[in-house]
Amino acid sequence: MRFSQDWKDYELIDTSDGEKLERWGKTILIRPDPQVLWSVEKGSVWNKANAHYLRSKEGGGHWEEKDLKKKEWIISYKDLSFYIRPTGFKHTGLFPEQAVNWDFMRERIREAKRPVKILNLFAYTGGATIACLKEGACVVHVDASKGMVEWAKDNARISNLQSAPCRYIVDDCLKFIEREIRRGNKYDGIIMDPPSYGRGPKGEIWRLEDSIYSLLQRSVLLLSDDPIFFLLNSYTTGLSPSVMAYLLSEATGRRGRVEADEIGLLVTSSNLILPQGSTAVWQK
């Protein structure tokens, strides 16, 4: 399992009873996590949480604030900065386990020693976008949520990247891919982090398992003649790293090298690693 040991502003302190205790800068939050299937004794540090996300029996949930002084604050990873904003659907706007992927992308861009163009699909609040921009790449950032794209712009600004070469696009990713194919545009690197489930503009249901292969096949057509990577990330429970590697191998015509593994976070109280998703990477 791959995980970063370089976080200073984030810490996964403890896990128990379907929840994780996290430190985001100086703020401590308790959030649910379906991977936490064990029940161990909770120490007094759990009582120091500034806010606790509680699920509702009707679906969704809410934050029970104990001492949450700010609705947003900034944390950093190396030379990247991000706004943390606890949302009504338990997320904070950042997936800290993705730091290992940010490091990988930056290293590949550095090694290329040439101008690199990156496409970030389902780009959320722009963690990967900012990492690539920081290394000098030109990025096209695509997400269907206007709010998430604006959040990504905020993150770029506080990372001093507001003038970096990035196009922020609010659009359906599949429709954008098809337009780019028709236009003949190409990218040296593609990042894809599709949701497990969603609804289209006409209410149609979108499931990752039903659509992922065709999505990969179409996206591969956007790779340049000398690409540096294609990174596929997933939080879908049934999509194992081995399956993701197989999908990516087939979609790229079995050319190049594919590696896949879980990514996770170090739990400081136990020194164990909590799985938080999977990543498959293709390289030429």
Protein described:
By secondary structure, this protein is of the alpha/beta class. Helix content is 25%, strand content 33%. The chain has 6 helices and 16 strands. It has helices at 99-112, 127-134, 146-158, 173-183, 208-220, 241-251; strands at 10-16, 19-24, 27-32, 51-55, 61-65, 73-77, 80-84, 117-121, 138-143, 166-170, 189-192, 197-199, 205-207, 229-234, 257-267, 272-283. Strands 10-9-8-11-14-16-15 form a 7-stranded mixed beta sheet, with helices on both faces. The longest helix is centred in the middle third of the chain and has 14 residues, at 99-112. The radius of gyration is 19 Å and the shape is globular. 39% of the residues are buried. The model has no long low-confidence stretch (mean pLDDT 95).
CA-based gyration radius: 19 Å
Strand content: 25-35%
Averaging pLDDT over every residue, what do you get?
95
First-last Cα distance: 23 Å
Shape: globular
Helix content: 10-25%
Largest sheet: 7 strands, mixed
* SSE pattern, N- to C-terminal: EEEEEEEHEHEHEHEEEHEHEE
Low-pLDDT residue intervals, each spanning 5 or more residues: none
**What's the β-strand tally?**
16
Structural class, please? alpha/beta
Oligomer: single chain
Instruction: Output the number of helix runs.
Output: 6
Strand arrangement in the largest pleated sheet? 10-9-8-11-14-16-15
